[in-house]
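Data availability (excerpt). All sequences and predicted token strings are deposited with the supplementary files. A representative entry, Beta-catenin-interacting ICAT domain-containing protein, is shown inline so that the format can be inspected without opening the archive.
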Amino acid sequence: MAGVSGGRIETAALRQNLEDQLDRLMTQLEELEEIKGDMDQSEWEGIRNDTLEELKHFSNSLDKMLAGDMTLVDQLSSLRLATRAAISDAFKTPEVIRMFAKKQPGQLRQRLSDLERDMKFQKVSAPKFHQQKTEILSALKRLGDKITPLEEDYLSQNMNAALGLLEEVSEQIIGEDVIKVAKQQVNNDK
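Structure token line:
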């Protein structure tokens, strides 16, 4: 079966498993945020730290997979970047991380629209609005989605250090992946 499909079926299954694992971890972070007030602070921090530790292990596994199989580079780069964003606290909104990891610019645009509506009707605090809007715009930009000059200005004015670090890390990841692909192509040509 692997010979007939050229590994495409196995790659798709692996990618789905990885997306499911990331979804589970992001859901866990979301639910933790929702019940934060109902838990003892130290207990909440312990569970959150455990989840972040799982994300670190997940990220390390992705790194190892990408180092060994170049056909997965493009498909798994966004997952790796999303897990690093979650670990570094660049994105504080698990829902945004999930949409970013799944490369869903349409859903991110919808979330931005909903967020702006909620702000208009004062259903969300100003700090939360600014944080999430910045995260969404940053994710859209990283996914190559067209952002308007007004959105670009908003992003540059509201970019925090963590999101700036994410930009640097993502450029580094892309650079590393390009180098790996180039090396493999050189080796294949020999």
